[in-house]
Amino acid sequence: MTVPGTQHLNNQATTSSWWQRLSWTSSAKPNTQTRRTAPASKEPKALTVALQLQRGAFRLQLNDSLPLQGVTALFGRSGCGKTTLLRAIAGLDRHPNATVAFGEHNWQQGRHFVLVHQRRIGMVFQESSLLPHLSVQQNLLYGFNRLGKDCERRLVPEQVIALLELEPLLHQQPEQLSGGQRQRIALGRALLRQPQLLLLDEPLASLDQQSRNDILPYLQRIASQSGIPMILVSHQLDDVVKLADQLVLMQDGCIHSQGPLQQQLLQPELAASGALSLLHAKSLGSKDHLLQLRIGQQQLQLPAPKHSQPSYRLRIQARDVALSSKPITDSSVSNQLQVRITGFHPAPHPAETLVQLQLEGQPLQALLTQQSVQRLGLQIGQLVYAQVKAVALD
Ligand SMILES: Nc1ncnc2c1ncn2[C@@H]1O[C@H](COP(=O)(O)OP(=O)(O)OP(=O)(O)O)[C@@H](O)[C@H]1O
C-alpha cells in the first residue's frame, strides 16, 4: 500500500523489507512476541540534565545523567516534578541556566537553546492532540511531510501503519475514534517524525482498563522493535513493570535513585504502590495446556498463554508469595521455589514486613505479617521455600 504524500519515498518499501529496516540490527523478521531492548551494539545515549527551579514551595534540583536504552520509566508521587523534567527535556519550557544534552546533541546550555521542533523527539501526552479537521492519515503524515530534506527517513508510513495496525482507521476522522485508537495515531505520528528519543507523558492515563490493555502491546512492540529510547512517565507501577527496562524514581524535585527495573522494584519507596517483583524466565514449552518455565535450576508452571515465546517476564505481587521453612507437599499451590532470605524491610502497614529473597540470582519479595516472620523464626541467610500463588506473564 502506498500512502498519499509519500510517493517521493522508496515505493518498493514492502512489508518484508520494512521489518528488516525497523529492527536495525536484525536481518530476519523478528518474533513480535519476543521482547528485545534497544540494539545491543548501540551504546546507550546518556541524557544529561542540570536544572534548578523554584515554584512556590516546590523546588526542582537536578544534576543527573540518565543512560537511556529501551524504556526508562520516570516514576514518583504526584507533584514530584516528572512533567516539569519531561517538558525541559523536550524544550517546551525554557528555564534559565539549565543544561540539557542528549548524547552528542547539546540542546540547551547558557544562551544556546535548540527549539522543540529541532530536537528530533517524538512526544505523546495524556490527551492526544490530533488535529480535528484532518483525517487519521493526514494526522499521521502531518509531521512526516514537513521533515527537512536532509532528515533521514528510517521509518516510513507503511512501517508505522503496519506496526500499530492503523490501516482500518486511515480514512476516519479523530472524533470517530476511541481514546485508545487516538493514542495509537498519536504514537504513529510521533514515530513518523523520525525521533531519536520518544517522550511519553502518561499516555495511558485517560484510558479505561480495556483500552490500556489494548494499547500496551503496541507500546511493547515499539519498545522492542524500534530501538528508539523512550522516557515514559506513568502513575501506574503495573504499566511501568510491563514496559520499562530502567526506572528513575523521583522524589520532591530530585532523582532519588535510578537503575535496572528489577533492582529498582526493591526500593522501599515503591512499596506504597504495591510491592512486586519482576523475574526473567525461559520457556521449556507447554504440556497439557501448562507452560513450563525455568529460572536457573528451578521450574514453575502456569496456564499456557495463547502465543508462546522463548522467554517471559513474570510479575509477582509480594502479597502473593508465602514462605515456609520446609517444602510443603499438601498444598494446592503448585509453584514452590527454594530461595534465600537477604533482608527485611518495613512495609506500608506496621503489622507487615517485606522479606527480600534471592531466587537463582534474581530478587523476589514476599509480604508477610511480622507475626509470621517471628513464628517461623526467619533470618537473613536462611534457605526457605516460596509458594507463589499468582503470576502475571508478559
Ligand atoms: N505552570 C505552573 N505554575 C506553577 N506551578 C506549577 C506549574 N506547573 C507545575 N507546577 C508545580 O510544580 C510541581 C511539579 O509539577 P509536575 O507537573 O512536574 O509534577 P508531576 O510529578 O508531573 O505530577 P503529576 O504526576 O501529578 O502529573 C507541582 O508542585 C506543581 O504544582
From TrEMBL:
Q: Which GO terms describe its cellular component?
A: membrane
Keyword hit for ATP-binding: yes
According to the entry, every stretch annotated as the Mop domain falls at: 330-394
Q: Which InterPro entries match?
A: AAA+_ATPase (IPR003593), ABC_transporter-like_ATP-bd (IPR003439), ABC_transporter-like_CS (IPR017871), Mo/tungstate-bd_C_term_dom (IPR008995), ModC_ABC_ATP-bd (IPR011868), Molybdenum_import_ModC (IPR050334), Mop_domain (IPR004606), P-loop_NTPase (IPR027417)
- Report the domain of life of the source organism: Bacteria
UniProt cross-references to NCBIfam families, sorted A to Z: modC_ABC (TIGR02142)
This protein is called: Molybdate transport system ATP-binding protein
